[in-house]
Amino acid sequence: MSRSKENETLPPGQYRVDELQVLHVGSVPVFNQASWSFEAYGLVEKPLKLSWGDFLSLPRHTTISDFHCVEGWSRLDNKWEGVSFGTIVEIVKPKPEARFCTIECEGSYATSLPIEDLMDEDVLFAYGLDGKELSPEHGGPLRLVVPKKYAYKSAKWVRRVKFTKEQELGYWEKRGYSDTADPWKEERYG
Ligand SMILES: Nc1nc2c(c(=O)[nH]1)N[C@H]1C(S)=C(S)[C@@H](COP(=O)(O)O)O[C@H]1N2
Ligand SMILES: [Mo]
Questions:
Q1: How far apart are CA 156 and CA 76, in angstroms?
Q2: Ligand 1 binding pocket includes 109 (Cβ within 6 Å)
C-alpha cells in the first residue's frame, strides 16, 4: 500500500522530493577499480582490506528506506543493495572497548556513529540503488546508508572504517551539525 499522508512518514520540518538530490562538498571522485580498497581497522581483532572484487563477494542485502537531508528534503522508499554493517562486524570482530566507528571517504569527508546505531538492520554499505549500480554522484562505487540519521551520516565514496573508543567528529559535525542527528527529534545542530 502506498503511503499517502505525508505527515505520517516525514520527520518534522521535512518536505518530500521525488528524486535524491545530489549534494556533497568537493568533486565526484573517479573510481579506479585497480587501486580501490575497503579497509576496516582500529580496535578490531582482525583488520580487513578488500579489493572491489572481494567486496562484491560478500553476502548481499536489499533494504527499502527513507533518506532525510538536514537541509529539509526527504526521499522515501529508496531501494538500496549492498553489504550490511553487521557482515563487516562479523569478519573484523571489534574489541570490547570499541564503541564508535569513523567512516572515512575518498577526499576529506568523514562522519562517525556509535556501533550500536550501525548495527541497525537497515544500515548498509550500498553499491546499488533502485535496481541499478550506484552512480558516482550518489556515492558509487560504495556509500554508507544510515536511514535513521540525517543524510550527512550516509557517507559517499567510503574507503575505510575505523573502530574507536571515543567518537571522533566528522566533517559536518566539526562545523556545528549534530553528532546524534536524529531526524525524528530534529537534531540538526550540535
Ligand atoms: N563523501 C561525502 N559523503 C556525503 C556528503 C559529502 O559531502 N561527501 N554529503 C552528505 C550529505 S549532507 C547528504 S544530504 C548526502 C546526499 O546524498 P546524495 O547526493 O546521494 O543525495 O550525502 C552525504 N554524504
Ligand atoms: Mo545533507
A1: 18
A2: yes
